[in-house]
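Work Package 3 (structural annotation) set out to generate three-dimensional models for the target panel prioritized at the project kickoff. During this period the team completed the workflow that converts sequence records into discrete structure tokens, so that structures can be stored uniformly alongside our sequence database. As a representative example, we reproduce one entry of 326 residues exactly as it appears in the project archive.
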Amino acid sequence: MKKLFSFFILYILFTLAANAQQEPQISNYMLTKPIINPAFVGAEKTINAYFMNRSQFAGFGKYKPVTSVFGVESPVDIFGTKSGLGLVIMNDALGYINDVKVSLKYAYHHQLQSGIVSGGIDLGFNNISIAEPIWIPVEDGSVDSDPAIPTQLSELAFNLGAGFYYETTEYFIGLSATNLTSPEIFDPETEQTEWAVTYYAPHFYLSGAYNIALPDPLFDLQPAFLLSTDLTSTKLDLNATMLYNKKYWAGLGIRVTPYKARFGQYISSVNILGGLMLINGLNLGYAMDLNLTNLQGGATSHEILITYSFNLEGKRDQKYKSVRYL
């Protein structure tokens, strides 16, 4: 029964993945922009570090998707050229499958009269591993491991990404792509060559945000969007966040997909966002996704984000923006 339950959970998750995109979802995407767009590394005058943990479909136990990300970025001056360097380590777990990606990111920033334009490149490696057999049902009603999938696998593949963005004091817009090399992860020796090769499809992102100044200077309203596609499926994230005194924020968002959800609409989830500045430079963010698809159990996802910023000169009396949308 335990093996059968394992297969049942994996079947649900892989069915969901087949109708979606390979890249993990992130609700706090406006606070972790370098993950999908390398052009943003070093855009601030501070060294920034962040850690995010996302638990998708809470209620599925150890088989649910879990994504953890650690990143650090810093502005650098290379032969008089304003640039940025960053490192992102992502661990994406789904059932028995574990995917680790390590990326080194570089960005070039150029000051224009109207704003800043930046271009970046992402050089990284993916390592996908299977720690346990994946069980499938057989004719006599029992379960057995799938002979086409290795039971102990660990392979490394090169990955390439790129992006750019344009920013003013009021808004920004960015365009980026990941998995441009469509890296092959493994090719087991099997006669079932139709699906023996696993690779990552290129993903493309269009993002933007706008800062709306309100009559009360203590409040700022910042609507944002993220459009992502792998040229097979497309999803759109929309949110609006209200900031108070640059220390506290709260917002709502929706995720729109081409597939009808539980109530006959195309909104797959409603997202609740919030956060606060704990101390100068240290911020805590949280997001909860309320799933509106036909998936009944484990419909809620939780995401925790911790960011820390400090300047290069070590002045601890400097105040830092709590939400780095712009």
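Helices lie at 2-18.
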